[in-house]
Fold each of these.
Amino acid sequence: MQCVKKITSDLVWVGANDRRLAMFEGVYSVPNGVSYNSYLLTDEKTVLFDTVDKAVQGRFLENVAEALKGQPLDYLVIQHMEPDHSAGLTELLLRYPGVKIVCTARTQAMIKQFFDLDIDALVVNEGDTLNTGKHTLHFMTAPMVHWPEVMVTYDSTDKILFSADAFGSFGALNGAMFADEVNFDKDYMDETRRYYANIVGKYGTQVQSLLDKASALTINMICPLHGFVWRNNLPSILTKYSLWSRYQPEEHGVMIAYASVYGNTENAAEILSSRLREKRIKTVMYDVSVTPASEIIAAAFRWSHLVFASTTYNAGIFVSMEALLSDLAAHNIQNRTVAFIENGSWAATSGGLMRKKLEQCKNLRILNQTVSITSSLKSSQLAKIDAMAAAIKTDFPDMMLMMQTMPGAAASVDPLAMFKLSYGLFVLTAKEGTKDNGCIVNVAVQITESPLRISVAVNKANLTYEMIRKSGDLNLSILTESTPFRLIEQFGFHSGRDTDKFAECGYDCRTINGLRYVPEHTNSVISGKVIDVYDYGTHSVFTADAVETVMLSSEPSLTYQFYLDHIKPKPQPAKEGKKGFVCKICGYVYEGETLPADFICPWCKHGAKDFEPR
Ligand code: FEO
């Protein structure tokens, strides 16, 4: 049964996923599978962009037939001849013998090499175009991204870049098609980096050439041959490609990779990592005999400083470390600061040999503080570890250090410091069935411009929180400085479980998602579709894409400070002889000699710690 995905009104994904493959290209583990993307453009002429791997060609052919809907297949654009994208070619030609292949001369030669076929192709060169009716396709060569015959295609009508291997990722698509349908940074960025570093990492200069060509285009969408289609937030992936292709680190920190037979080399590496952490420098550690090399190579593309620690083995570098360093040099790692720790029970040679292996790489700054240990690190050698840590620390300006409390330091935490943060005040509304509800929140921020995306923190005890969890929809009414205290009371000091917060309202204003909003003392409303939820104990943070916004007035937004200074009722003096405690949050007064430790403010639900004697 076919499984196609609509990309645009004229473009359909007809690829397939493979979750049974253990090793991509026979060398890269793909625990999350891999997608082989193929796209069908339907116009006056139909165009298929690439085919798929042999393992999934049955599903692919079903998909192509479905997407064609009886139209003939006019063109097959072959952008890349690696068999994970071209293996379906011969079967496709049998089923669609009239199809015209569009490719570079190098691709035509490779078709002969792989399939022993003499193809009468439409051979295209840099800048050639093909008009298919409504669409015009522009062909651009991209040699060595990832093979020499590679080209990419730009559809200037819909402004789509078909990018071949560029911007691809490991990982099956799992029903999603677009990068903005998933939490890409959290769940897919590591596999995208691993794909880049290992598949095209060696060819940074060529990737830069492709980025230069792309920068001259208006691109609304990127369709790669693996992984998700990009239709939003394109700068995020383009920026990563710019960094990776220039071999610039993404983060300041130290990647420590070690090869240890009996744990003594590991021990030295761990002590170094500990010393660096004490200097507030981020570290990651990998045992090269356990972690696949492709992950460590990806990490080397991520971090600014690299430390390699290896025991000496058969008078050389330990086997797994030797393989890693060869691989790293082959992937052209550059622009890093590197240090070594060697171990040897009778003749430690691994340090010098590791250095020799990496000296061929460009712009590596190799620290002279190599630590050499004999069987195990001795306390007399700790100074050498410290010297290496100190040498690394000189590269870390204070602003690049982790903000963390130093172990052993007498840290003080004054919660009142939090009051110095600026907050707003908002009515967050939601709906479940016929029940409308809302609550006051003070943390809501815009986090990205493209797409328009906000995050809102909500107390999990609130009914509004439960409603948003179920529906995935929310409205945020941004209150203004004219807000009366009664509106804060209405939404903030009661529970929607036992009251209808809208009962007294003389309005029933709703956005297109059906949710109510507060039209009075509000300057704008943002309707959000939740894309992610993070749980932080008492509160959760919803991240939502803005699906509708309503501007209501130009009044200034209400800040929490303005509320404290001008709206919140001032505590009343205690009645003669009566003691009491005032809630610092909402002003509620508890009368009594002592405040129970488990007291909860009936208005704002804050605990006893937020009360002060009046
Ligand atoms: Fe996905 Fe270079 O092939």
Note: The chain is about 25% helix and 25% strand.
Amino acid sequence: MNFRSPTDTFRHKGLRKKLVEAIRQKGIRDQAVLSALEEVPRHFFFDSSFLEFAYEDKPFPIGAGQTISQPYTVAFQTELLSVKKGDRILEIGTGSGYQACILAQLGGKVFTIERQKTLFDKTHKLLPNLGYVTIKTFYGDGFKGLPSFAPFDKVVITAAAPKIPGEVLSQMNTGGIMVVPLGENDTQIMTKIVKTGEHAYTTEEFGVFRFVPMLENKTV
Ligand code: SAH
């Protein structure tokens, strides 16, 4: 094994505290979410040459044309999910694995799917090395969900979905929450969907965000 565990210095911790305070100022008030952001070292998800960008409140390229979401966006989606300890959570769009670790930090049992093989391979190796041994990573198309691991209490989609993925909705428990940026253009509307019955749900909209697209079928 040639993986060297990254270090979390006082400087990193200080930068993270400042970042979390900035996110609080922007309106995130759920203390559990803010604490999770303070606990998970975001620089562990960056290549070593880009560490100085890890504690800016900005998205950043992670390879394969994808990005690690802006910390504020991660906090916003996580707050909308109302994670409870033991929740079975499906994430679509593993990317760097950062969002998955935030959900695990909150006590969720996390299942996460990625369609880009290079990102999947990298994150699949990284997460256990960072100590996140309970997160289950999958290579595949998130539009199909994970039927053999259903039902889920929560679903978070971290790519721009052109429509509500019906197959995924059908894999949720009644009372479950899905948080998904909906829209096919440059920007999307953050949408919270509550499954109210076997074939019924309500939706609520939470403003404009910008994500990389959720792409159907092919895994690459
Ligand atoms: N949650 C990530 C953000 C990743 S960006 C993080 O914390 O870093 C969105 C990711 O969604 C990209 O890696 C992209 O490849 C992936 N993606 C896009 N369409 C997908 C699909 N249909 N199924 C699974 N992953 C998908």
Note: The chain has a mean pLDDT of 94.
